[in-house]
User: Which sequence fits this backbone?
């Protein structure tokens, strides 16, 4: 971008959004715009495989790239990593968190995948207890959500911060 200010950033995000490119990087922060419709190719099994082991920026901006970087940083630095998912109600935090979990489970989980499937399957149950319809979101996590997933010894904390 020629000028880095709020207006040009928003314009850039809008232009990308109209091309179904809902993800944009600002340095190593990922901005996601809620498309309010399914973009199937964005989360296909092929995409999940493509983003495994790729450096940030090697492929187009994606929530999978953030998950992969966190996992690889954990391995290299031997320290737990955190992904903070933040935004107003209805912004798409819960959906983003589900995509993060799915990516991590499919690419970096145990081989049998049984435990990972249980983690993914637990989500609808938790939502049944913790979610409610609000004016801003039909499936709002009003009671807050905190997901902690451990792979091996010291993997990983995901936060979905209620707004
Ligand atoms: N990546 C996405 N693709 C398609 N639809 C999405 C996506 N992200 C969000 N949505 C749609 O937007 C709705 C609201 O998203 P979500 O529940 O994730 O918001 P939230 O930020 O967690 O809200 P709250 O803080 O109220 O819990 C979802 O039910 C879904 O219909």
Assistant:
């Amino acid at each position: 971008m020629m000028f880095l200010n709020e207006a040009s950033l928003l314009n850039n995000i809008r232009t990308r959004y109209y091309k179904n490119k809902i993800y944009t990087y600002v340095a190593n922060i990922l901005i996601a715009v809620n498309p309010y419709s399914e973009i199937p190719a964005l989360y296909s099994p092929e995409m999940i495989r493509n983003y495994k082991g790729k450096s940030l920026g090697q492929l187009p901006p994606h929530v999978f790239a953030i998950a992969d970087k966190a996992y690889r940083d954990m391995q290299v630095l031997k320290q737990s990593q955190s992904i903070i998912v933040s935004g107003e109600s209805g912004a798409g935090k819960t959906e983003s968190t589900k995509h993060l979990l799915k990516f991590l489970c499919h690419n970096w989980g145990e081989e049998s995948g049984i435990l990972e499937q249980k983690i993914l399957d637990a989500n609808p149950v938790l939502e049944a207890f913790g979610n409610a319809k609000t004016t801003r979101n039909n499936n709002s996590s009003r009671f807050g959500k905190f997901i902690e997933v451990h792979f091996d010894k010291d993997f990983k904390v995901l936060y979905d911060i209620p707004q």
Notes: The longest strand covers residues 23-26.
